[in-house]
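Question (not urgent): is this output format expected?
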Amino acid sequence: MPDLLIPLDPTVAEHANRLALLIAAATRADGQPPFSDQSLVDLWAGARLGAAIEVDGVISGIAIMTTGAAPAEAEIVVSPDRRRRGLGARLLADVLARSGGNALIWAHGDHPDARSLAARSGLEPVRELLQLRLSPVRAPGGATEVRAFQPGADDAEWIALNALAFADHAEQGALSQADLDARKAESWFEPADFLIASGDDGSMIGFCWLKVEGGIGEFYAVGVSPAAQGRGLGRGLVAAGLQRLAARGIRESNLYVEAENTAAVALYRSVGFVDHSIDIQYSSRPASAS
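Got this back:
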């Protein structure tokens, strides 16, 4: 039976099950998930397009990509037991065809096979996202006083603060109520792990959102209001997050940070985080053509 490229519909039970199995297998093999939370949220909401490649009638590779505004953004995964058979190249070719040759493709973990495929396809690296880890988790002093996020009551104020804190971050800064609702519906969501810092007037000025899953405590997002920056609030929020993880008995922590955000990288390294892996975003168009 020849390999077959088909649309991926997460509302179809077989497709949803295979998507979950592929994510789990790739995460075990590669040490990190192949798709971002936002990519999966958008796929289920119908805001991103999914394509799958079948081998012997079994979905063995999946690509998820944005639609509409250019450039398209995509992520691709191939089942670990079906790699080096050209499936990734076929999915990449489909992404490039659908995007009119204007796409940004994430390679989570910067694996040699991904680098090789990118080079063969004429893609150029344009962005680096570092994954840092800390083990064992230590609870430092100097923590900012925080409270737990209150679902519903805090939603609108947090969305507004997040947009200000991440105004220069295309993905995080654009989170909407629907995006927040999707995350609140996840099994890992815990309001007590969503730490909020308030100013003297009670308004929200910073937050440290933790995601505890699989025994690892991730610093999902740490944000500070531009009006409150320069006071050490970011460091205080990180300390509060580490204290929360330690209190929960979490021994290992991780986070993702843009390599070019040197201030944030320096902060996290100063409390003990070390390099673990790198995600590379490749562009199908040279910088001179962007």
